[in-house]
Amino acid sequence: MSPAEAMPFGPVQMLVLEFDRTRFDGEIMPELERLKDGGVIRLIDLLFVTKTEDGELEVIQTSDLSKDEAMDFGAMVGALVGLGTGNEEESMSTALAGALEAEDGHILDETEVWYLADAIPPGSSAAVALIEHQWAIPLRDKIVEAGGIALADEWIHPADLVAVGAAAADFPEAGRTT
Predict the structure, then answer these.
(1) Which residues contact 37 (CB under 8 A, 6 or more apart)?
(2) What predicted TM-score, i.e. pTM, was given to this entire model?
(3) What tens digit of pLDDT does each residue of 104-156 get?
(4) 72 φ, ψ (degrees, to nearest 5)
(5) Could you tell me if 49 and 57 are in contact, meaning their C-beta atoms sit under 8 angstroms apart?
(6) Does residue 156 fall inside a structural domain?
(7) How far is residue 70's CA from residue 32's CA, in Å, rounded to a whole number?
(8) 60 in a structural domain
(9) In the chain, which residues have pLDDT < 70?
């Protein structure tokens, strides 16, 4: 088995979002469906929490994984965590723990519900999404087959670029070549 075959899933991103409202017009889920249908992403787990003005919680959780797939995914994640210990027995133990944690068909659990509920004010909503980037699997496999490894992996958001500009403004002579 090649190293690429040993990793049956693509890069996973955890996205945590807050919304300043509790009512939605259905604009987000159709876009997620479009990306899923195009093979761009797979929704490993999505936890959506709304806190009404009177503090009541409404929770929605969904996943593209079947119960068995969630348990397999949990086992793989657990095994990778255990592999980091350098102890084969520990790796087996954490693989089992990961599978059992996902036995309900979800990777995210009740602790995340309470985390989100505590983090948002009444009249708002929050979501945690675990998104597998399926588009990256063939690229990753080709990189691995060519003997490459990732040295760094970061998302650069527009706010990061604004921060770089703000920092550069503090030192106007930096970067000038005239």
Answers:
(1) none
(2) 0.78
(3) 888 888 788 888 888 899 999 999 999 999 999 999 999 999 999 989 988 88
(4) -60, -45
(5) yes
(6) no
(7) 19
(8) yes
(9) 1-7, 172-178
